[in-house]
Amino acid sequence: MESGTVTDQQQSMQTGQKAKITLYWLEKSRSQRILWLLEELKLEYELKTFKRTKEKLAPQELKDIHPLGKSPVITVEAPAAPKPLVIAESANIIEYLTDHFGSWLVPKKWAEGKEGEVGGESEEWLRYRFFMHYAEGSLMTYLLVSLLVANIRNSPVPFFIKPITGMIAGKLDSMFLQPNFKTHFTYLESQLASSPNDGEYLCGKELTGADILMSFPLEAAKGRAGMDPDRYPKLCKYVERLQARDAYKRAVQKIIDIEGEYNPLL
To answer: What does pTM read for this prediction?
Structure first.
C-alpha cells in the first residue's frame, strides 16, 4: 500500500508547493534518501549532482552552497523568505519538508483523549522520534567505523606491513564491530516484529520520514556489515519493501538517467 491517506495527499496538492526546492546531490552519499523523499512527496524540485574527488571526498563546489561542504543540502526559495533557505543534515531536511509538505509521513503524536499530557504520546510517534535520532546518532556510527576498517584492511601498504594492517582491521572487526552490529540488528529485527498494529514499517502500518532516514544505513549494512536474511529475515525484507516503493524506484531511475548508473555505497 502506498503511503499516506487520500485526504492528506489531496490536501497537499490543493495547498500547492509555493516554493522552489533545489537538492544538491552527491554520489554515494546520504543524499539519495532526500531525493526519494522529494519523489514520495510528489514535489517539484531542481536536482544538481556532484561527483566525489579521487580521494572520495565531496568536491569544493559544495562549500559554495553550505560552509561544511557536505551533502545532502537543499535550498528553498519561498515568498516568505527574504533570501534562499539553506538546509543541511538529512533528519533536519526530512523534518522541514514533512512539516510543510508531508504531514502524513509523521505519525499522530497523541493517543486518543491524552492530548498534551506527559506520557500521552502514541507509540507510533515515540518510535518515529526515536528513529529520527537513532539512524545517525547510533547505527550510522558503526557503519562509518566499518568503512574505515575496510580502508585499513585494503590500504596500499608494502607487503611486509600488510599482515599488521590486516591484524588491526581484523581485531577491530571481531572485537568491536561485529558484537555491536549483532546488538543493533537484533534490536531492529525485534522492533519490526513488534511494530504497532502489526505494521510492516518501523513505526507502524504506514511509511514515515524515519523509515526514509533509516534506508541508507540499512542498505549499507546489507552491503558490508553482515546483515543477511538468514539471521535477520524481517530486517532484510523491510529493506526490500522500502526499495520496492514506486517513489524509491523513480529516485534511482532519475540518477541513472543523469549519471548513467546508480551505486549507493563507497
So the answer is: 0.89
